[in-house]
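In the laboratory, one determines a bound structure by crystallizing the protein with its ligand and collecting diffraction data. In a computational setting the workflow is compressed into a single prediction: the sequence and the ligand go in, and a structural description comes out. We illustrate the idea with zinc ion.
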Amino acid sequence: MELSVVFTLLTFVGLSTAASWGYEDNGASKWADTYSTCGQNSQSPINIETFDATLQASLGNMTLTGYDTPVALTIKNNGHTAQVDVTGNQYISNGGLSEQYKLAQFHFHWGSDDTKGSEHQLNSNAYPMEVHFVHYKNSLGSLGNSVSVKDGLAVLGFMFEISDSDNANYADLISKLANITAYNTSNLVSLTNTALMNFIPSNPTNFFRYSGSLTTPSCNEVVVWTVFTETIKISQTQMATFRTLMSSETDANNQQYNIKDNFRPVQPLHSRTVYSNFYSSSATAAYITVYTGLLSLILSTILSY
Ligand SMILES: [Zn+2]
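The predicted complex, in structure-token form:
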């Protein structure tokens, strides 16, 4: 009987944890029912219409400090994603940031296939995966102190694109995914000492900037978002390995789901402005398309007379 009570309690605890939020039965459309902030007006992710972004050259370039120093890393399956915790001294500054922000962790959002997976979209295009480097305001001292303060967090987002060959810089991290397929937050696996610059594009320069939120409950609107245009390359085989991780969520038969489509759909921009630190070539391309279209229309009109 005691065992049965314990089992019932464990089941209850397990279910209540699994039911809190997720990407399956308790998916993003239901988050605001429990976490009211998720229904507010400055939410993330968003679709970035590059044509509409406001050029703000004064943003300048972002400075990444310590990203070139090899650092001890651990990776874990937290039931929603693969998260790499960082305990070194990596900072970002400049690029329009009011002060230095310190890196705490990075994690990934991916799709059930290569046609989707990223949280942010560029001109309504999704990418197969997006990585988020989560930094907190250094003067606030910790991630916990920063998650309820406006502009307390600065997150860098990078998109992945499929390439024919493996990305060697990701080989160790992806090989360690096999050790964390089970959802178990305490299952920390060490990665080889690696400089974090190996996990980002070689020279990230061009970015979009807007004010938004955490993309998971409780959706706090405290994030200075920086979404870069330079992408990270990954093979289809490497991409598929992420989909082997098991979720904390279970279906009606108490079977665990795989972690897949762990991205929140894009949220309305409302009155926010998206800035860019560069003159968007996509905007130029769009102008050329419109201009060429008009030109051919005029020509065909003239020729028809
Ligand atoms: Zn994220």
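The longest strand covers residues 153-163. Keep in mind that any predicted model is a hypothesis to be tested, not a measurement.
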